[in-house]
């Protein structure tokens, strides 16, 4: 049977149809997530928490601890650790926040004398830092609610996410059996393999990022203490939090540390602070990232930046935090599909 279009054009048209269908499905999925973000956000946070706590839960199960008790102990441990870490970070930022803001204003005044408009913009940023922090809290919670409503919604989402973590840990085997039952019989193994690969990529990314963030925060805090930069503990806490947004978070938090050193200790100490920040970044990029995350999905920096940009456009700060681990999970699924497709092609 003859057709009007040659074979290459028909293949291109077929691929275009596939791309359009996938784009449409992705757009509908994003729209649903944004529409029901109050329910979707705790689920995503619970998945990240489950990925981070999975090794501890499995170790408790290996010690013959009953499954529900193991899940409860894991959740209790995360409440203690996260609560303690949050207290340390918030206390450090509160105790040194005024020093950091004052130093930023002083650095802005100095830069304004030398660079004009650039320093003035920095001064406006420092002056409005508290307002920006308030907007950050609102965006992370719902994007529109402020004041006490933000606090209430954050607490509600945290409690819901913690309960979901408990059920995800306890009923992980039941969830996998349910996933297999929903998939067609001939593809159940493939679906389970893709789900395990995606969760494994997310698990490795979360554990590696947390460990790297802790090392970065400690090293920056120690370096700033040695240089006697005011607010060193707050700067270290800022670096720890910013490390969960790859590249962009490290750049912003490192720049803040350098500006604070410039304002309070002068150009010489600021240059030493630049050296400390660059040394920590080089250690992270050439030692910590390859060693700690060598078994997880490796993504090109351009892909990471695009994922962060897309996440910010969809859900603000929260989208930036969730974009990279979800992209890692997607890359895990694609890697499993590619591996199975290659093995199937070689077998035939």
Please tell me about this protein's structure.
The protein is mainly alpha-helical and about 350 residues long. Helices cover about 85% and strands about 0% of the residues. It contains eleven helices and no strands. α1 crosses α2 and α3 packs across α6. It is globular, with a radius of gyration of 24 Å. It starts with 6 loop residues before the first helix and ends with a helix. About 5% of the residues have low confidence.
List the helices and strands and how they pair.
Elements (H helix, E strand, L loop, with lengths): L6 H29 L1 H26 L4 H49 L1 H11 L1 H13 L6 H23 L1 H11 L5 H39 L5 H11 L5 H45 L8 H47 L1
Helix pairs in contact: 1-2, 2-3, 2-6, 2-8, 3-4, 3-6, 3-9, 3-10, 5-6, 5-11, 7-8, 8-9, 8-10, 8-11, 9-10
Which key phrases capture this entry?
348 residues, 11 helices, globular
Residue stretches low in confidence (pLDDT < 50, at least 5 long) are 135-147
Residue-averaged pLDDT, rounded?
Answer: 76
Beta fraction of the residues? under 5%
The total count of helices amounts to: 11
Subunit arrangement of the protein? single chain
Main sheet specs = none
Radius of gyration: 24 Å
- Terminal residue distance: 28 Å
| Share in helix | over 70%
Overall 3D form: globular
The run of helices and strands is HHHHHHHHHHH
By secondary-structure content and strand pairing, the structural class works out as mainly alpha
Number of strands: 0
